[in-house]
Description:
Blueprint: H1 7-16, E1 26-31, H2 34-37, H3 45-50, E2 56-59, H4 61-66, E3 75-79, E4 81-82, E5 97-98, H5 102-107, E6 112-117, H6 124-141, E7 145-149, H7 162-174, E8 179-182, H8 191-196, E9 202-205, H9 213-225, E10 230-233, H10 235-238, H11 243-255
Parallel strand pairs: 1-2, 1-10, 2-3, 3-6, 6-7, 7-8, 8-9, 9-10
Antiparallel strand pairs: 4-5
Helix pairs in contact: 9-11
Amino acid sequence: MKHISSAVGAGKIRRASRFIREDGRGFLVAIDMQTASGDGPDLDVVERIAAGGPDGILVSWQVARRYPEAFRSCGLILRIDGATTMLGNYAQGDPFELMWQAEQAALIGADAVVMMAFPGADDEGKSLQRLGAVVRECEKIGMPVIAESIPGTWARTVPWDTEHIAKAARICVENGADAIKTPAPPEIAEVADVVANTEAPVFILGGPKKDSEDEAVQYAADVVAAGAAGIAFGRNTFGAKDPTEMARRLAAAVHGA
Length: 257
């Protein structure tokens, strides 16, 4: 059977290798929150971050099409869901809808797509059905799917403890997600428990901006040392005094340089 291969499978592996290095780790930067917030990073910050050597950048449709050269040497991960903003009651329930399809992500050159999932929410079926629909489409074209796994909702209707974070991540993977983006458990050492329960790379969210850049870099090193495949930092990267240098420091922390 070793001579049997798959063009679709090869496509997914090739795309994933754009944002996960040979050491199995990846440093991702999230520049996609502005689809809901309407503000946030400077308009051209993706170029400065790309110069610092991240492995992949999570972006909106506008950033992907406006700054294509920023992705010459790193993966483009497209946020494909949205349709709700922080101008209203953002944290309650699951108001998300699909904005883009798998073929449109491939058209713009994406190496993966990312979308929300809310296992444990009262209306959890909405996000899990969306995830299933996206997985079905992405399987046809060899596109990796990253599920942003949030137990309950952003309102924390389910505790963000190790048990629920680990179970939510596992649920997303069992429904077809190729990688997970998730909050860290309360104790960083327990990232190992989340990873042990999840048969896919786990990327830990940066969360609110840390008190110092040194603290953010140490946090990145700690979650990777605990077993995470990497980090997905937003404010702690683009909100730095020098986003290019911060990206370099975080990349070094993730890959052990």
